[in-house]
Design brief:
elongated, 70 residues, mainly alpha, 60% helix, single chain, 2 helices
Amino acid sequence: MSKKTIGIVVTVLGLIGLAVSLLADYIGLGSGQVEFGPRQLAAIGVSLVVTIVGVVLLLWKKKGETKKPD
C-alpha cells in the first residue's frame, strides 16, 4: 500500500473519530449532559492527533521527489 493511501485512510479514520467524539452526547454515547467530559476531551485530542498524522503522511514527500504529471 502506498504512503498516500495510508495517509488517506488514517485521515478519514481520524475525522470519523473526531466527529463521533464531538457528537457523543447527541448520539447517546456520552453521559447525556450537553457538556464535554474528560473522556470526550481525551478522545477529541487523540482524534486530532490521528488526523494530523494522516495529513502529514498524505502530504510528505521524500527528499528529491518530484510530483509526477497525471
